[in-house]
Amino acid sequence: MRIAILGGTGDIGEGLALRIAADTDHTVVIGSREAEKGIDAATEYESSLAARGIDASFTGCANVDAVTDADVVILAVPPYYAGETVDSIADQLGEEQIVVSPAVGMRGDEDGLHYHPPDVGSVTELIAERVSEDITVTGAFHNLSAGRLADLDIVLDIDTLVVGDDDDAKATVIALANEIDGLRALDAGPLANAPEVESVTPLVINIAKNNADLEHVGVKFQ
Fold this sequence. Notes:
Elements: E1 2-6, H1 11-23, E2 27-32, H2 35-50, E3 58-62, H3 63-66, E4 72-75, H4 79-89, E5 98-101, E6 106-109, E7 112-115, H5 123-130, E8 136-139, H6 146-150, E9 158-164, H7 167-179, E10 183-187, H8 194-198, H9 200-210
Helix pairs in contact: 4-5
């Protein structure tokens, strides 16, 4: 498959790009608001994997170009850019493509991070409302530590929850996630369950912040 990671120059985008390229045979395209940043990141990721003896090739470009011919489009952008990013690529999205959102609305204070969803209930549902009706949206990769993903010396051994209303699309995303070594994808039901999934993320970050030995804490269901 061709996997486009929009916002692929950011923390979660980098981690997903490196893991997918290292562990699967899928083509990975790094998108950014500025094409030059996408190209630079693609070169950097290739070099990083090459240093580990992994021959991987990335394509870097602007977000709007990354969507072209992609089977899966991962919106690895901050939540406050999610709607804007969707609007910028709307004309390029086709009904055979699957859009995946890992974004979570949060706000911080002196006590830590707290879940702060949009009015519709979750960022995943917000994206589903912004795309046309024939575009399939799923939510995945919400509760993962970006640092843990990007550090290939760390064994993941964690779970990710996947939500979506289209069973076939959800199965595709689950299969993709399961190809990443040490990551297990679990079906968490329809898009309506996205708020429950997304709300776990600030909890995980707060645990990491307050426990020195759990810097890269993740979720594992047993």
